[in-house]
């Protein structure tokens, strides 16, 4: 229904969406990752396509099929995501960073499977911080681009979620931050979502609740309304 009713208001615009979650290998068979399915980011790509945009979808370990009509670039790690974003960002009028990005990667990747040690029952991993892609593209933007970040937080209520969101958007330098609450049982693999969108001033510009596709359309409405 969303698709049938879509307005074609993004014809001539290019939208770059990152979706999914990056994974950092420890050895040939293991990784450090997160529970992002990619559904909300894929829904943003789908909504933008329906509205006539040219869509580039950078997918990190997507658990759902990308929409027809997007140019898809597949990545695994945060460094690969960074390279793909750097290669594609110049043409984008809107960048939506929905991907859940691994903040750290192992300082070294073991060339063979890590074996259990016989002399210790603990294992220490040493991690190196990954680059902050959203902050970099927000800082380096050359022109009038709209940049949207996402933050999934385990805050207990909207007030603390908003406080955290305000601090985060000022650190990132993006134009909008889409906030949602996540937990052991809410958020990730589900088909629905509830979000609050804030701007650089930290003001609440809107909220949305419903299917991830309807939430995606609402996010596009809010961020393009500000143009
Ligand atoms: N992000 C990014 N590069 C990173 C980490 C995050 O581009 N290395 C982006 C995400 O895609 C998302 C936004 O930044 O759009 C917020 O991610 P989040 O993990 O909430 O922010 P962090 O600054 O990593 O803060 P936290 O300590 O809460 O994880
Ligand atoms: Ca993070």
Automatic annotation (TrEMBL):
- Cofactor binding comment, as recorded: Binds 1 FMN per subunit.
Which keywords accompany this UniProt record?
Decarboxylase, Flavoprotein, FMN, Ligase, Lyase, Magnesium, Metal-binding, Multifunctional enzyme
DNA/pantothenate metabolism flavoprotein C-terminal domain location, by residue? 10-224
Q: Where does CTP bind?
A: 103, 113, 131-134, 150, 168, 172
Cofactor(s) this protein requires: Mg(2+); FMN
List the GO molecular function terms.
FMN binding; metal ion binding; phosphopantothenate--cysteine ligase activity; phosphopantothenoylcysteine decarboxylase activity
Q: Show the GO cellular component annotation of the record.
A: phosphopantothenoylcysteine decarboxylase complex
Any single GO BP term? pantothenate catabolic process
User: What Enzyme Commission number(s) apply to this enzyme?
Assistant: 4.1.1.36, 6.3.2.5
Top-level taxon of the source organism: Bacteria
* Stretches for region Phosphopantothenate--cysteine ligase: 15-227
Q: What reactions does this protein catalyze?
A: N-[(R)-4-phosphopantothenoyl]-L-cysteine + H(+) = (R)-4'-phosphopantetheine + CO2; (R)-4'-phosphopantothenate + L-cysteine + CTP = N-[(R)-4-phosphopantothenoyl]-L-cysteine + CMP + diphosphate + H(+)
Pathway membership: Cofactor biosynthesis; coenzyme A biosynthesis; CoA from (R)-pantothenate: step 2/5; Cofactor biosynthesis; coenzyme A biosynthesis; CoA from (R)-pantothenate: step 3/5
* UniProt similarity note: In the N-terminal section; belongs to the HFCD (homo-oligomeric flavin containing Cys decarboxylase) superfamily.
Briefly, what is this protein's role? Catalyzes two sequential steps in the biosynthesis of coenzyme A. In the first step cysteine is conjugated to 4'-phosphopantothenate to form 4-phosphopantothenoylcysteine. In the second step the latter compound is decarboxylated to form 4'-phosphopantotheine.
What is this protein identified as?
Answer: Coenzyme A biosynthesis bifunctional protein CoaBC
Q: Which residues of the full protein are shown?
A: 173 to 399 of 399
